[in-house]
Fold this protein.
Amino acid sequence: MVRIMRFVSLCLPLAFLISCGGSQPPSRWEKVQQDTTNPQKQEINKPIVPPKAGGTLNDFFPKSADGYDVTPSQEKAGFAEYKLKKGGKEMAMLAISDATAGNPAAMEKFKQSSKSIGGFPAVEQGSTATALLVNGRYQVKVLSRSPEFTPADRAAWLQKFDLTGLAALK
């Protein structure tokens, strides 16, 4: 009986500490973990439509021409990127992203646009990038990597993409 009493007297404070510890609010790191693993919150960030495979977008890039080399650089779900070089010097990056798949707000900037290229709304993004929105879904972008590559050059290269084919992509 004495042994049982000693055991209970040792376990009771431990049980109390354990039960009290569970009532504390989660730390900020635990809160972030809970927020990012909560299935209900994940539904909010779920893409409206699944993004196209990056390889699907490759067919719409311009081909090498006029002394420019167009070479693949990066590809992942919903995104493909090519380098544009002239004489071995990188002049620009060409990119297509499935803009609305994971970020519907990405197309908001095009709603205010008064500019169009190839019949699609276009925007300047800073001093080195020009983008357009194709079929309300695909963002096509040219980013200058050299000061010699002007906004007019970016607009000209945007028109070299197969925009009609991309617009038809479902």
User: Anything to note?
Assistant: Strands lie at 68-76, 79-86, 89-98, 115-117, 120-125, 129-134, 138-144. The two ends are 77 Å apart (CA to CA). The chain has two domains: 2-45, 54-168. The chain has a mean pLDDT of 82.
